[in-house]
Design brief:
Elements lengths: L2 H5 L11 H8 L2 E5 L3 H13 L3 E5 L24 H12 L4 E5 L8 H6 L2 E4 L4 H14 L3 E7 L2 E7 L7 H4 L16 H20 L8 E6 L4 E6 L7 H5 L13 E2 L1
Parallel strand pairs: 1-2, 1-4, 2-3, 4-5
Antiparallel strand pairs: 3-9, 5-6, 6-7, 7-8
Length: 258
């Protein structure tokens, strides 16, 4: 029995979980933008669930304030690439999962990588990258799981690959008050939102349970409550009218690891 199969043995006893569900995970490729507090948790749970391949995208090096939430990082990694550390840690935890690490922002030149994935997870901290990733997902016809947190709150939203609302339907102007480098973070809230996003991704990839699309789940950490909202397409959405963003390829060659 391979390590990935051993790790998955307990989840395969879930009511209704079949070998076919597990096989779909093993053949899946996930494009994950962001390996910080939310994205790092997503990456760990997807790898341990048996996802066969992940492309991790995150720009920048580790700093002290990151360590209250970024579970794939260690103090010894200060000043080093965060996505590089995440890749190395995951490779030790789950050698069967194939990891490609890219130290860069989400950019138009990543379109072929998006197209090769089965699902995208958006765990970035700025709407410029989020909107671009959303448009690339629509163009490639791929489902996307949006995950975000701020302070004691967070939300997850699964978005379908073609019909239904896009990210810009939900947040037409982004959030001008959101400072991506200065919003408050309780690390445990990041873990909750990352776990929720991982559950959605696993369900979509494996086909386990009913289709979870078209619903926003909002988590409130002060009273540990969740609220659910049905979401629909905004007929005035510029992104839906214009179609996927046509951005010129970025010819820079960022650090990449395998």
């Amino acid at each position: 029995m391979r390590p990935a199969e051993t790790m998955a043995a307990r989840q395969m006893t879930l009511p209704g979980w079949t070998p076919e569900n597990q096989a779909r995970l093993g053949k899946s490729h996930v494009f994950l933008a962001g390996v910080g507090g939310v994205g790092g948790v997503v990456a760990q749970y997807l790898a341990m669930a048996g996802v066969g391949e992940m492309t991790l995208v995150h720009e920048g090096v580790l700093e002290i304030p990151d360590l209250n939430r970024q579970t794939l990082m260690e103090l010894s990694g200060l000043g080093k690439s965060r996505v590089g550390q995440a890749s190395e840690r995951l490779a030790r935890q789950v050698p069967a999962c194939r990891i490609t690490a890219i130290d860069a922002r989400v950019s138009g030149w990543m379109e072929p990588l998006v197209a090769s994935a089965d699902l995208l997870v958006d765990a970035r901290t700025n709407f410029e990258e989020r909107f671009l990733l959303g448009r690339l997902a629509r163009k490639a016809g791929k489902p996307l799981v949006f995950a975000a947190m701020n302070g004691m709150e967070g939300m997850v939203v699964p978005l379908g690959p073609e019909k239904g609302p896009c990210l810009e339907c939900l947040f037409p102007e982004g959030d001008p008050a959101w400072d991506p480098l200065g919003f408050p973070v309780l690390g445990a809230v990041s873990g909750v939102i990352g776990s929720m996003a991982a559950i959605l991704a696993i369900r979509i990839l494996s086909g386990y349970g009913r289709n979870p699309m078209s619903q926003m789940t909002f988590f409130e950490g002060m009273n540990l409550s969740t609220r659910f909202f049905k979401i629909s397409q905004n007929r005035r959405c510029a992104a839906c009218r214009e179609g996927p963003l046509q951005q010129a390829a970025d010819h820079e060659k960022p650090w990449r690891g395998q």
